[in-house]
Amino acid sequence: MTGAREIIVARSEAEIADAVLAALDDKSPFEIVSSGSKRDYGRPVSAERILDVGGLTGIIKYEPEELVFSAHAATPLTEIEAALAEKKQMLGFEPADWGALFGGESGRATLAGTVATSACGARRVKAGAVRDHVIGCRFVNGSGEAIKAGGSVIKNVTGFDISRLMCGAFGTLGVLTELTLRVVPLPARTMSFALGTPSAEAGLRALRQAAALPVDPTGLAYLPDAVRRAGTVAGAVPLAGAAGVAVIRLEGAEAALSEKLAILRQTFSGFDTATLDDDLTATLFREIGTGGVFVGRATDIWRVCVPSSAAHEAVERSGARFWYADWAGGLLWLALNGDEDTAKRLRAITAFLGGHATLMRASAEARESLQVFEPEAPARAGLTRTVKAAFDQHRLFNPGRMFRAC
């Protein structure tokens, strides 16, 4: 896309609806933009106009006793997290701020951007994905209608869950204006148990073993030695000399943590181990969730999701030399070229092992020419087109962001 593009600023749901109704006259699509922190995630949008919805900010309602809040779509996550922290609560899925990963600033992520890209961190192994925490939303569809889906009560989830459908849709189904999410209490304490392993295979196996123990881990990551030597927070983890470090995050009261540590020490008595305090644990898992080890590193990035039992085989087949694992190996961050050969290799891996591969960071040219997201089977692709047509018949919203046809 070359040349200046028209920018339409909408500061309310009504103004968004008016902009969509006006666009229907000439079927001229929009690229939907708020803070822009994830604008380079996904395929470049094929639109001559920008719909700027960054003015829709502010917490609408917060009921700590009900563990629920509602906020306008472009509300910064930092504002939401600060309000929740005052009441000793948090977003359970641990939202990931990927702004710095794309060359921008941290702290600019918005609520809608997080939901639209399903940006969750390491706590997904315990709390589930973003979609498991969204219980309601308002949005403007491709006909200029303001739609309310779901509700503000957690139990009020019946029938077709449109709110969840918006998660990971990258703004292709509608323009989000409000979101309602459930929250969880902040843990009394957070710490990590780390063990040095002789190989990546042993480290990933240890994470799967830890996941099955009665210690309720909220983070299960493997950091190869190359990552620990990259001059990042991961380098502060002790246990030098190991091929890598498996890190198991624990939460709870002091007595509960002591019991969990005893179980882990007994289970992994044959390894060199260390405990990480609350502060180091927090910064380390923030880096893991945000891809911080790749910030400032000149490399394309793929994220590959596979069954955790197949993680080591997936890494070996990928040929990646700089990588790490989250979600007990279910999520692999890989430094690999964004090119056709790599795409074919990774998609062959996911076809064989199960899962999907996403080109998370690459040049605009690479993202334009490649299939950024896992290609859909014909039946699913047909369903995707049907859903898109139901919400946005004239393809006004972020056309081409996920797939060329949607």
Tell me, what is the CATH class of the largest domain? Alpha Beta
Helix content: 25-40%
The helix/strand class is alpha+beta
Count of spatially separate domains: 3
Strand fraction band?
15-25%
CA distance, first residue to last residue: 18 Å
Explain this structure.
With 406 residues, the protein is of the alpha+beta class. The protein folds into 3 domains: 1-186 and 376-406, 2-Layer Sandwich (Uridine Diphospho-n-acetylenolpyruvylglucosamine Reductase, domain 3); 189-290, Alpha-Beta Plaits; 298-369, Alpha-Beta Plaits (2-Layer Sandwich), CATH 3.30.70.2740. 30% of the residues lie in helices and 23% in strands. The chain contains 13 helices and 18 strands. The chain has a 5-stranded antiparallel beta sheet. A 4-stranded antiparallel beta sheet has the order 12-13-11-14, sandwiched between helices. A 4-stranded antiparallel beta sheet has the order 16-17-15-18, covered by helices on one side. Strand 4 and strand 5 form a beta hairpin.
